[in-house]
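#struct-help
A.M.: can someone run this one for me? Single chain, 361 residues.
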Amino acid sequence: MSHNSFGHLFRFTTFGESHGPAIGCVVDGCPPRIALTEADIQADLDRRRPGQSRFTTQRQEPDNVKILSGVFTEADGIQRTTGTSIGLLIENVDQRSKDYSEIAQKFRPGHADYTYDAKYGIRDPRGGGRSSARETAMRVAAGAIARKVIPFMRIRGALVQMGPHKIDRANWDWEEVNNNPFFCPDAKAATFFADYLDQIRKSGSSIGAVIEVVAEGVPAGLGAPIYGKLDADLASAMMSINAVKGVEIGAGFGAAELTGEENADEMRAGNDGSPRFTANHAGGILGGISSGQPVVVRFAVKPTSSILTPRLTVDKAGAETEILTKGRHDPCVGIRAVPVGEAMMAIVLADHFLRHRAQVG
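D.P.: on it. Structure tokens below:
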């Protein structure tokens, strides 16, 4: 299997399966002498970790990360990157492979089972194997390192919609994101989501969500106008996350409803000599290059495909049958996608920052 790597100058490669002994990644391109410890990475992993509330999978994985290479403790006692490949490993400790024995020969509708088998002629039915969202733990780990490369940028994500229900943006409070299990910036909506998702969960079903990721402090000039567009790389990064079915930058699809006058992010003279924008429909990116405004990305996550409700399907022999998926699954996988989206934003911005730095010297 190819295509296990993402990025250019800042690049990471992941390995491992959902029910294998471990998952891991190798991060290349991190500059030397950046202070980095396992605790720096663990803080982000703990936000994504499963089993922290009734609204996520009850698989109990501590997700304790180990740094295997690429750091050295100097005479001052501080552990810093060496500029070489950084190896990271997380052991899997709570696999329950028997949960999948009954569906080993059946294809789950909405899942990657059929397409994976069609491409490779073999698949690991235990939690989806390589196609499992378990892999995203390593993206979060790589993203924690990326944040160290661009500490002047602030990257935050939030759940802004669950099913058809959207937050009230007038209630947006970044501090509230860490006060509820949904990463929701609207306290009132978070209370509603708790009751709403309880009903979904108890029925054995699942629901989708929309996540918004915002990066502040992004300098103007990152990206390139043709095939190195910052927004194109961000779209690729977010679409690569499991279960993501749509991505938009700034106003996104809403821009199609605006007139030219409404969509134009008008400019006035700023106090620091840089232009001051009166709006940000472009989401901080113009012509594939960052404008200096906050970079805003949203992505839609589909409902978890593994559900307890019986669905029609076929087996590997082509016979018609039905299936329900036992085991431990997120009733709304979009919740834990918030730190994953933040990580992918950080990885893309770190990569483009290093590319830009190479250009300007």
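A.M.: thanks! The helical segments are 38-48, 113-120, 136-149, 187-202, 230-239, 260-263, 337-360.
D.P.: also worth noting: The mean pLDDT is 91.
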